[in-house]
Specification:
Number of helices: 9
Number of strands: 21
Radius of gyration: 23 Å
InterPro entries: P-loop_NTPase (IPR027417)
Low-confidence stretches: 1-7
CATH topology of the largest domain: Rossmann fold
Largest sheet: 9 strands, mixed
Number of domains: 3
Strand content: 25-35%
CATH class of the largest domain: Alpha Beta
Protein name: AAA+ ATPase domain-containing protein
Length: 354
């Protein structure tokens, strides 16, 4: 990427960040059409480097440009936004619906269908500010041009696809996780702790935010929970997904925030267990989501109690006693605690005696 704003070419609005594309000639005309929904007259904050794309055919070149623009916008917003690998649409009132999933989950197919009725925001990245405002990334969509060559995709403007124009501002209102496969159960509520872990796997630069688990927990609560869509063909469930905008939210799942606490990380001396340094954590009724470095673990059962008991370093005997106080007497308590501690250590969320 180059920060040279002098070579203007096209400038596109990607997640609220003006990105320059220094294309010329036929490539500039082609890209201008593809990015028709995102063109802006603002000066570029940065420009993508196209030098390495020389010699590529048009399909590969244009896809690579889109990738570079997206990466530039992600870099510019790292540490300020929750950026999720997701597509989004919005109704005229600005209520946005996000569909989350990895590559191959069917996001573009879902957005192509949903954007017949709702405004197109993105088929790839949902960029959320602290108020859950969705910053549009109205990039061209990658569409298979020849069914006989499914790996060859055209970059097509949302205008050429007839997608509905999104409102000028949108706020996240509902979240759906795409689960494409043989299960055709439709929309199923996803427990909040599992939803956080699933969404984290599709985020970029989340670790650079302050209190990232709290940000996600709060977003899930404000959006009325998260639904998983188990489906074979998205079209069969599109109306149900659109209907989520007016569907009653799920009951809020209460949670407790556990921000990083240095007091629990001190050296407790020989024979003690302690927490591994963690970035952020939220506790639900029977599960706890903890972020260590850029990895997220979901703890359940005895693991939750042990992690909470390690608010200061403790010996294994002290942890056994804490478990008895929490759950009552059990003849196998020492063995159960030892096994659970071994699992937590393998997950990287606690440290054993030196």
């Amino acid at each position: 990427m180059s920060d040279d704003g002098q070579t203007r070419g096209l400038v596109v609005d990607a997640m609220g960040v003006p990105i320059g594309i220094p294309a010329t000639g036929d490539a500039a005309e082609r890209l201008a059409r593809q990015w028709s929904r995102a063109l802006t007259h603002l000066p570029p904050a940065s420009s993508v480097d196209l030098d390495q794309l020389a010699g590529l055919d048009d399909h590969a070149h244009d896809y690579a440009v889109t990738t570079r623009v997206t990466l530039a916008a992600l870099t510019a917003t790292a540490g300020r936004r929750v950026n999720v690998h997701a597509g989004a649409v919005a109704d005229p009132a600005g209520r946005a619906l996000a569909v989350v999933g990895p590559s191959g989950a069917g996001k573009t197919t879902a957005i192509l269908r949903l954007a017949r009725d709702l405004g197109y925001l993105s088929d790839e990245t949902v960029s959320l500010d602290h108020r859950l405002g969705v910053h549009a990334h109205a990039k061209p969509l990658s569409v298979v041009a020849d069914p006989g060559s499914p790996r060859t995709k055209d970059s097509v403007s949302p205008d050429d696809l007839g997608l509905v124009v999104a409102p000028t501002s949108a706020r996240l209102h509902r979240i759906v996780v795409l689960q494409r496969g043989d299960d055709d159960a439709g929309l199923v509520p996803l427990p909040a702790a599992r939803a956080i872990a699933t969404i984290v796997a599709q985020t970029s630069s989340l670790v650079h935010l302050d209190h990232p688990m709290l940000r996600l927990a709060s977003a899930i609560e404000e959006c009325g929970g998260v639904w998983a869509l188990h489906y074979r063909e998205f079209d069969d469930w599109a109306d149900d997904v659109v209907g989520l905008l007016d569907r009653a939210p799920q009951p809020a799942a209460p949670y407790v925030h556990h921000p990083r606490d240095r007091a629990s990380l001190v050296d407790g001396g020989p024979g003690t267990w302690s927490r591994t340094g963690w970035k952020d954590a939220v506790e639900y009724a029977d599960e706890l989501v903890v972020m260590v470095d850029d990895q997220v673990r979901v703890l359940a059962g005895l693991g939750v109690g042990l992690w909470l008991s390690l608010d200061q370093p403790r010996t294994e005997a002290e942890l056994v006693e804490a478990s008895r106080e929490r759950w009552g007497e059990h003849p196998d308590a020492p063995a159960l605690v030892a096994d659970a501690l071994a699992v937590l250590a393998a997950q990287g969320v606690v440290r054993g005696p030196a």
